[in-house]
Amino acid sequence: MVRVRSEAILREAEVESFGRGLLALAEEPGQRVVLSFLGVHHLTSLVLGKLIHAHKRLTESGGELRLADIDPHIFEVFSITHLDRLFRIFEREDEAIASFSKEAEA
Amino acid sequence: MPSRFPETDLGPGWTEKVLPTRLDCIREPEREVVARLRDLGYNEDLRFAVRLAIEEALVNAMKHGNRMDPSRQVVLAYRVSPERVEIRVRDEGPGFNPDVIPDPTCDENLHRPCGRGIMLMRSYMDEVSFACSGQEVQMVKYRKP
Predict the structure, then answer these.
(1) ipTM score
(2) Model-level pTM?
(3) I want to staple B127 with a disulfide (CB 3.0 to 4.6 A). Which of A8, A52, B86, B140 is the partner?
(4) How far is B4 from chain A (nearest CA, A)?
(5) Which domains does chain A have, with CATH numbers?
């Protein structure tokens, strides 16, 4: 479970470290990651690129990245870019976590 | 001080900002424009749209235009009125042809980590065009009733 707080993800200088942090999660095989965007009200395509890269690496290592708590404006960005087809997006982080648990039980 | 946009003659009412090619220099002018929009009563949807478009344009200018070369600059020019906001961003790179940018929403491009900036600008602004062989992007957002 990873939470993105406030607008930290917006500062371009920090996007790189955000991306590296996500990729570090993929180093361990089978990591299931929920990324909560609660409190984030703006992002750019630089961040989308980091998410796509992390999603790819996590999938390759047998894990998965799921997203939650996405502001309506930001969801629109995912929708316009069709990335809502690439990522599994949940309304709340507990729903995203539960979705992993349910799949593990099945 | 002469305009950095000599070919397109900005005219009165424009504010110009010359920025170094550093991603951490984007935030301040972006906030300045958004503050102007807020002062004029532009709603949150419009402010989100303009902010995103400016940020995408500046990032593109620095990363793809100037290739992050610190010896090159980016110029942001804007003019805000109660009816519309006009944005221009110019880099010092070699230019590009916007018509050959692959569609990032195609299935084969969906996993590519870049190539969405221009699409987002076109989605959120009412008018987007390129001048000076792609070195300059010009955008307009209208404040509709």
Answers:
(1) 0.86
(2) 0.88
(3) B140
(4) 25
(5) 2-105 (3.30.750.24)
